[in-house]
């Protein structure tokens, strides 16, 4: 069952690219954007991360902190951050706990083949740790994702 607007975000979010534990309470008093994406260094995921990077100052000014989440390893995240000069942390959800908790680990299909994967989804969490809004997979615009968030 997917988390939705009005639900409390889980306290433990996971381990970032530096191997540090990340908690929702680390962002208390700030609005937190947690965006789930399928894979580091793929075209759509890179466009989305770069939209957030290029508008990072504006997002921070609007009171947002950004956290990306994929099932890639911390090493993969470090490479992605370095290559794209990303100013925010990425959570390495290698055990798939967070994608399952948020309900974004779903059955997908490509070329007639079914497989499990991460549905590109963004959760906006308020200063008290409550999910305020969910940008569903069909609504996420990778190239204009930061603008999408800022217009909420």
Question: Which terms summarize this structure?
Answer:
152 residues; 5-stranded mixed β-sheet; two-stranded antiparallel sheet; 5 helices; 9 strands; 27% helix
Structural class: alpha/beta
- Low-confidence region ranges: none
| Strands, total number | 9
User: Going by CATH, what is the homologous superfamily?
Assistant: Glutaredoxin
SSE topology string: EEEHHEHEHEEEEH
Helix content: 25-40%
Put simply, the count of helices is 5
How is the biggest beta sheet arranged?
A: 5 strands, mixed
What's the CATH C level? Alpha Beta
Distance between the termini: 25 Å
List the helices and strands and how they pair.
Layout: E1 12-15, E2 21-23, E3 31-36, H1 43-54, H2 56-61, E4 64-70, H3 74-84, E5 89-92, H4 97-102, E6 105-110, E7 113-118, E8 121-125, E9 131-135, H5 145-150
Summarize the structure.
The protein is an alpha/beta fold and 152 residues long. It is 27% helix and 30% strand.
Question: Can you walk through the features of this model?
Answer:
The protein has 152 residues and is an alpha/beta fold. It has a single domain, classed as 3-Layer(aba) Sandwich (Glutaredoxin), CATH 3.40.30. It has helices at residues 43-54, 56-61, 74-84, 97-102, 145-150; strands spanning 12-15, 21-23, 31-36, 64-70, 89-92, 105-110, 113-118, 121-125, 131-135. Strands 5-4-3-8-9 form a five-stranded mixed beta sheet. A two-stranded antiparallel ribbon has the order 1-2. Strand 4 (64-70), helix 3 (74-84) and strand 5 (89-92) form a beta-alpha-beta unit. The chain starts with 11 loop residues before the first strand and ends with a helix. 34% of the residues are buried. The model has no long low-confidence stretch (mean pLDDT 97).
